[in-house]
Design goal:
alpha/beta, globular, CODH, 4Fe-4S, oxidoreductase, iron, Substrate Binding Domain Of Dnak, Chain:A, Domain 2, Rossmann fold, binds iron/sulfur cluster, nickel cation binding, 6-stranded parallel β-sheet, binds FE(4)-NI(1)-S(5) CLUSTER with Oxygen, 16 strands
Length: about 625
Amino acid sequence: PKNPLRTIDQGALEMLKVAQEQHIETVFDRFVAQQPQCGFGYKGVCCRICLAGPCRVKTEEGPGSKGICGATAYTIVSRNLVRMIAGGAASHSEHARHVLHTAHAMVEGNAPDYEIKSPEKLHKLASKLGVSILNREDQEIFKDVTEIAYEDFGRYQDRPLAFLESLLIEQRRNKFKHTNVMPRSIDGTVTELMAQTAMGVDNDPVNLIFGGIKGALSDLGGEYIGTTLSDILFGVPEPIVSESNLGVIDPKMVNIAVHGHNPVLSEMVVTAARKMIDEAKKVGAEGVNIVGICCTGNELLMREGVYLATSSASQEMAILTGALDAMVVDIQCIYPSVQQVAECFHTKIVTTEAIMKTPGAQHIAFNAETAMEDAQKLVRIAIEAYKNRDPQKISIPNERHKLVAGFSLEALTNIFSKINPNRPISVLTDAILNGQLKGVVQMAGCNNLRRPQDESHIAILKELVKNDVLVVATGCSAGAIAKAGLMSPAAVDAYAGEGLKSFLKTLENANPQLSTGLPLVFHIGSCVDNSRGIDLVMAMANELGVDVPKVPYAASAPEAMHEKAVAIGTFGVAMGLPVHVGAMPFIEGSDIVYGITTQIAHDVFGGNFIFEMEPQEAAKKILDALEYRTWKLRV
Ligand code: BF8
Ligand code: SF4
């Protein structure tokens, strides 16, 4: 059938009807058209890393069981997996590098539109990195910090990534040192992995996977650079009220979607839009409405309260409303199809980064030096496009839900400190030890249409909160939850178990300064902000006086899709966490690799993958993993 119900997002469902009526092709059609997907690729046993290939593992035994060079299934599967991790690490780190370039331009005096919004975060980070803060100007301190970050990208001396090291507790630092997976530079590790996995090099699956773990730790280092520097430049998120789903697109306003991941430009677009209301009024609109998609949306939601229009699998739907005047994209998770859909409407797609262009779209190169000017140009493109709207084509779903976001670790710590100022994190760990909470789960990751969009996110979430798990969420998992109206205080009464409910109420009562009730789920940010989750685990391990494998904390990526998600899951395991993944990675072609990721990883790092596609089963397995840890903590 055309467009079967492959989403549970009510806003997206409404727009799918429009797509069908107007015969506009979307990701949901293409998913169907791709079935059945290649069995060799799915199992990870297709190799095309040299021109003798492509080779496939066709038989159990004999010459057909290997590639032309003799590479066996375990070699091919692990090389492919490790290359995905390298791709993820490269992506997150490229994002971080861009934030770093902007920060650096600012301290050099070449980016006048940026400033240090959070000196507190700068001082804290500087101290952790060993940068002196006594009697020094913030600009000078920040300069030293950016230099260390640059070293982290390119260091060749045998010293570990400074940002990563500053994030880790001692036990993890030692573990990574002893297992030889501590990266010394991000760029160096990604390059090394490409070399390690090239034709005729490493074919030992254990050595390859350990290389992958090093790559994943570089990814985490990159994420942490991205998160911390963004916090310094744009502010540390604090609880903030906003709304989500496609109904936030306002027919009376000039609507601009900012889509992708990097806040450096989109932050400026928000500021520019606030100043350009009069220009919008001249074309008959009431103002300029910025809405977010994917992680750029999450970044702006967390810091500015910008509406979150939608998440990855439904990105085309924002254009189908007919009321989106421009979509400004930066990098990652942007479907090439947005331009094709936009051509059916008046919507302008504008790319802004040198490494991300799309045929037919306009490109406005973003420069840190001229950021505000560039941002104004972008807003003006949308204002111009507004004039070309076709009122016949406008149909915006009514779906919009209130939400509370902005839970950085600083914000959480602040909330906990109202109960225990000296040991804030003990508020959380005590609640686990005394049975009020079952533990913490970090829900992360993407949409993957192997199951209906958002279905697994929501099903797993409901099961976890019912069982008194405190859920923190990032990326498109947070998006799914927000769009469904479950990131609101109202959802607490409807879905939380008694323990979680009373925990949240206690926090609320101790925090009368909050202008809103606490939500069912704590939104901790974009995908690079998975590093905030790791920061929280470290704080919990410290508080409990144990290493991470004993902390009742798990991660879940119910609809993992991007290479970045593969990297995140892998560092989660290395960090010592049970990591549920609801979309099978391409490793089933090798029992050995499957065993390494589920068993050996556990023996060495104390974390392991849980591959479970069925959401109810997945929730049960996650709860079991938490329960086991809590039980061990108590005995
Ligand atoms: O970095 S969750 S689909 S938008 S990769 Fe992409 Fe996945 Fe969404 Fe954000 Ni993360
Ligand atoms: Fe085939 Fe080996 Fe070349 Fe891969 S590296 S394509 S298995 S010959």
